User: Which sequence fits this backbone?
């Protein structure tokens, strides 16, 4: 069968451009060995890590990495029969052949309340990361003030909903006034537009968190996060999730020295990677599902249509064009 994939035509130099990508056709033999299956892609996830991993062995001509929601069309694996809905680590492809080790997780039993694309957002990398950051890393507690940067994004919106469910005062920052409105509608106590507050960041943080911050979900890094740390209460916990503010920079980004702040306030900073917590995926997913069924949690996403538009959706997400999870429906 004929399938399409999107490859890296040239390495990104700074901000990715459409011309960095190319659609290539490939012939996929339909005969299967034991342990293999064929699939059609239903939706493709566009994520910041796809940008941040350039340089880590990723080279020209490689299929762009990424997770994809697929339906099995033919199989020689007993547990992944025809019709099964899976999220694969197969990169930006509209179909193809895969094996069990390509499977990220099975998503057959999502509540009917959400579209299938939730398998890439609320129940995908974003939702699981939000759960791990708050529940396992920061261990948020009722009554605490918790701050989320990237507040309206894929991870940020789920982190906010979890924080609300856990009885915290949830505050955060994002890049447009529309996103600030969105944040208030999904349970943030307060949020601000960091682009408008760049000259008065301390005042903006004090305004949303007058009693200080107990936990910080850091999605952006850089000098913004250095400023947040100065507003943390003694013993505060920080989950270092990502640093998107630097992913597209061509020279190293400098931020203020943090050690005096960390030392004086006895802060605990912990970096984490979703992929190191595979044994917790099931528990996280069950919680997220339960909260959805109870009406406490919603799936928010920005859907782009068409395989050929995956690079545009990726670039749009890096520019901040998404509210909720950025996905492409094929
Ligand atoms: P988002 O859906 O939040 O999309 C990215 C957002 O980043 C944009 O919408 C934009 O929002 C914001 N942004 C872009 N440039 C900047 C900048 N210079 N400064 C501040 N914000 C910026 O993405 P995800 O929710 O998927 O990912 C959020 C973070 O979590 C990323 O850093 C990512 O790498 C990390 N991550 C880490 C994982 C892990 O295992 N540790 C797993 C998944 C994600 P705005 O308009 O608000 O600027």
Assistant:
């Amino acid at each position: 069968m004929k399938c399409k994939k999107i490859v890296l035509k040239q390495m990104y130099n700074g901000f990715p451009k459409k011309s960095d990508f190319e659609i290539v056709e490939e012939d996929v033999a339909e005969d299967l060995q034991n342990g293999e299956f064929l699939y059609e892609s239903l939706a493709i996830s566009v994520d910041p890590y796809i940008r941040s991993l350039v340089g880590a062995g990723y080279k020209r001509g490689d299929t762009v990495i990424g997770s994809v929601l697929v339906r099995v069309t033919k199989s020689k694996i007993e547990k992944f029969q025809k019709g099964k809905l899976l999220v694969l680590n197969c990169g930006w492809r509209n179909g193809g052949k895969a094996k069990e080790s390509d499977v990220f997780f099975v998503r057959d039993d999502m509540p009917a309340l959400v579209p299938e694309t939730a398998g890439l957002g609320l129940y995908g990398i974003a939702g699981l990361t939000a759960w791990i950051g708050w529940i396992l890393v920061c261990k948020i507690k009722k009554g605490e003030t918790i701050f989320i940067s990237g507040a309206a994004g894929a991870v940020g919106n789920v982190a906010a909903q979890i924080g609300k469910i856990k009885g915290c005062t949830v505050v955060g920052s994002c890049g447009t006034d529309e996103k600030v409105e969105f944040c208030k509608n999904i349970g943030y106590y307060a949020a601000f537009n960091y682009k408008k507050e760049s000259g008065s960041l301390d005042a903006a943080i004090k305004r949303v968190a007058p009693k200080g911050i107990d936990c910080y979900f850091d999605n952006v890094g850089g000098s913004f996060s250095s400023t947040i740390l100065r507003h943390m209460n003694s013993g505060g916990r920080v989950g270092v999730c990502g640093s998107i503010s630097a992913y597209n920079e061509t020279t190293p980004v400098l931020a203020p020295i943090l050690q005096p702040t960390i030392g004086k306030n006895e802060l605990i900073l912990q970096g984490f990677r979703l992929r190191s917590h595979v044994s917790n995926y099931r528990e996280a997913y069950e919680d997220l599902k339960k909260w959805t069924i109870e009406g406490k949690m919603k799936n928010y996403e920005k859907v782009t249509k068409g395989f050929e538009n995956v690079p545009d959706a990726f670039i749009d997400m890096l520019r901040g064009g998404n509210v909720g999870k950025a996905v492409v429906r094929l």
Observations:
- DSSP finds nine helices and 15 strands in the chain.
- The CA atoms of residues 84 and 226 lie 45 Å apart.
- Residues 47-49, 52, 125-126, 129, 150, 152-156, 174-176, 179, 219-220, 241-245, 272-274, 317-318, 320, 322, 326 surround NDP (CB under 6 Å).
- The chain has two domains: 2-121+299-329, 126-275.
